[in-house]
Amino acid sequence: MSSADYEKLRWQEAETVRNLLKKQNTLLGESLENLDHLIYLQKSINLLSLQEIFQVMVEKLPFILSIKYFTFFLFDKNRRRLTLVSHNHPDIKEEYSLYQNDSPIMREATTSGRYIFEQDFPASRYFRGRKNPLFSCNFFVTIPLMIENEIIGVMNLNDNENGLYNVGDLDFALNVSEFVALSISNAMLYERAEKLSITDGLTGLDNHQQMQTLLKNEVVRCRRYNSPLSVIMMDIDHFKDVNDTHGHQKGDEILLDFSAIIKKFCRSNDVAARYGGEEFFLVLPETPIAGALHIAERIREEMANHKFQSKDKDFKVTVSCGIAEFDATHMQEAANLIKVADLALYKAKHEGRNRTIQGSSDDLLDT
Q1: Domains in the chain, please, with CATH?
Q2: CB 101 within 8 A of CB 119
Q3: What would the pLDDT profile of 257-270 be if each residue is shown by its tens digit?
């Protein structure tokens, strides 16, 4: 080999090494940039509120993933339903949901547990309808979000400034989806635990402690603004006999049905609670005693007409109600209002059950 050929070969090898180093530096730069984005997202999305997380996704994901549009659907596996909870599409209405089978691409992603990457989505077997004029690119990515093999949602990505989506982009999006899935899962667990701490496990109504807290707040508001406040205390008649005769499972069914009847007649500001056992309680803000009587009677009559079945035989169950209105002159606290309603309920039981009795602050003097 001549010296000239040798020098040429050395130059080519040096040029190859330089190009490799440039490529490695570029890849390293992209990796570091992606790492910064992941850290940035983790700090932003490490929240406990689902709604805050969904808002952060709208603000951060398009920039972090270098895409124009995204949608995120929560997946309810029991109902096989996908509900849109976060997106930045300008032409999608809020509160949008669909059944799993209504979206071929999300159905396959949730069924298989694998992402789907289509470079030309309109030409794919998943496409339905007309091409959206908003999108300048044809790629579409669907990523199922999973926690311990449980799919909690689906994230869809499409359109960007580059006009394409490559394997590196996809790999980073998959990493991001793991962050998002973990944050959402933690938030869901937190909110579920929070809800369990204030609700009755069987009926889903507020529990005794939560009712007491809300009632105390309403009493304070009632005193401040001189507004009416009434309560209803209800008790299922002869519930022990029902349990003994028909079994505890039937007893639970009765509690659930009665809870559903209470919810039916509740307004948005009312507080419905399971007071304990077969006793229930309604807090009715901005409601005078006449309004409480009307609501109590509607609940009582609905329950009295409701049919239950055991061993192929129909039977009915009734309830007794005690109602009371807060009297700022003679009542000092929420406990006084509860006491008056409880005394009225006792009278309803003593006078034959399946009736509503109105209490008054005078009853406190008698006791």
Answers
A1: 3-196 (3.30.450.40), 208-366 (3.30.70.270)
A2: no
A3: 999 999 999 998 99
